[in-house]
Design brief:
Layout lengths: L5 H9 L19 H9 L1 H31 L4 H19 L8 H23 L4 H24 L14 E5 L4 H12 L3 E6 L2 H15 L9 E5 L5 H14 L5 E4 L17 H26 L5 E5 L2 H4 L17 H5 L6 H25 L6 E5 L7 H5 L1 H9 L1 H7 L3 H13 L13 E3 L2 E2 L4 H4 L1 H15 L8
Parallel strand pairs: 1-2, 1-4, 2-3, 4-5, 5-6, 6-7
Antiparallel strand pairs: 7-8
The structure holds NADP nicotinamide-adenine-dinucleotide phosphate.
Amino acid sequence: MRKVTLLEQSSLNRGMMPLKEHIPASPSSGSDSSDEIEERADAYLPSAQKRYCHACLGLVAFTTLAVTVPTCVWGVVDPFASISAGYTVSVLLLQYWMMEWPQCDSRPIGLLLAAALVFTLPTALASFLNWSIRVRIAAFILDVTLAACTYVLTIRGPAYEPEKNAMAKRTVIITGCNSGIGLVTAKTLAKSGATIIFACRTESKAKEAMQEVLEEAATHGVTESQLKFMQLDLSSLSSVRCFAQKFQNECEELHVLVCNAGAFFPTKSVTQDGLDSCLASNHFGHFLLTQLLLPTLLATEKKGGEPRIVSVSSCLAYEQRAFDFSQACKVNDDNKAAFLEDPEYEVFRAYGQSKIAGMMCLRELASRLQEHGSEIPVNAVHPGEIDTNITGSLHPALAYLTKIFKPFVRMMLKSPYQGSIGTVFASTSLEMATSNHMAGEFLMRLEPIRANEAWLNDADCLKCWNVSIALTGAPDAVGA
Ligand SMILES: NC(=O)c1ccc[n+]([C@@H]2O[C@H](COP(=O)([O-])OP(=O)(O)OC[C@H]3O[C@@H](n4cnc5c(N)ncnc54)[C@H](OP(=O)(O)O)[C@@H]3O)[C@@H](O)[C@H]2O)c1
């Protein structure tokens, strides 16, 4: 699915074109055996490790050069130039490793060139020309400018604020919004008038978060009646069903469904339903929830409510070349031990796999909705690397370390507010109000990025959809 240009919109508006007709055929479309799919999925591991090694080696090489060359060879060093260029290179290396720049982009290249210039210029000036106090001040201003540009272009990203009252009389479900990106999204959308359903698994955490929203947003006129808690544990299919039933009993319309909740699973485990915990929490739960709420979304669309579905994905999905279908199965007492004994289990891979499954079903859903004549936009956003509680789910020690080194962490990672901008943009902007403009896209820095191999593969997307229907028992609300 590609971004439809404004020029093309008029022809699209005349008649709905099924999205799949726009998708270039993948070289591997359709004919793969499950072994071949697993092999393609496995190709992730060496590539991630390679990138990690590249990033570490690059950092070590740069730091060594930055400190030793100027001091040993010329006997001069400009510490500010080293810090500023070092900061730029470290941030870019981290983001390169995290697949933040999956396609060629002039911004990181420009920043790297600027870092090289800022770093070498003072040494060259001091060695061959003029290194007076005035030149030093000019060089210092250059150093600060580089650090500021690095922060704005790589960490902060583009800014976006919804219009005042843009969400008045609109109902928004946000899963996992008691902390992190979801909580800030809830605050922003409540401030612009929306009624927020806190779809969280722990009541006490949700109530605390709702209190925080009320205290912070009271000056924007946010009232208690705008915030509602409904219990939802995405790792339990029965909890998802109860939530959907309760929502449909209490609310007639749904304008935005934000599938935000997510977690890392450092060790492999299975849920009560016999599903892999990582896939269940990050993909199957949201899949079932979306299917169950589709009738409400379609009914809201019929009334002219322009509903949307937004999924908070991750660029770690982007590096997955295929979904490993062998992990999408129901485990019982007989095969549980064999399923859990997986020496190749790796936390980032499992997380990326759960996110790629979500992305593949999202593409299939976007396409099916268009085929059914619906204009509900379904898109995913990558929030960036954010300083949130999710690092705690990776390892508890990381949560303490990020607290201790907060100022340093904030220089390398986005704040939850900065991380919520993509979700808020996809939930409120006029550009994304219908699928005529954008559907089945993956947004980074508010722009759709080139699709990856896995979600361009129509046959695999359909298979992932069918497997998800079978394993969750979801109703196929937009069946082919
Ligand atoms: N932070 C990043 O760098 C980053 C990068 C890329 C993508 N993301 C994605 O952004 C989304 C939000 O994460 P975050 O960074 O804001 O992390 P966070 O602060 O840990 O928030 C995650 C939320 O999801 C909830 N959750 C987890 N499993 C759940 C389940 N089974 N049922 C219901 N709720 C569940 C958590 O609830 P509890 O508080 O009860 O655990 C929490 O409210 C996630 O989908 C994550 O994958 C984050």
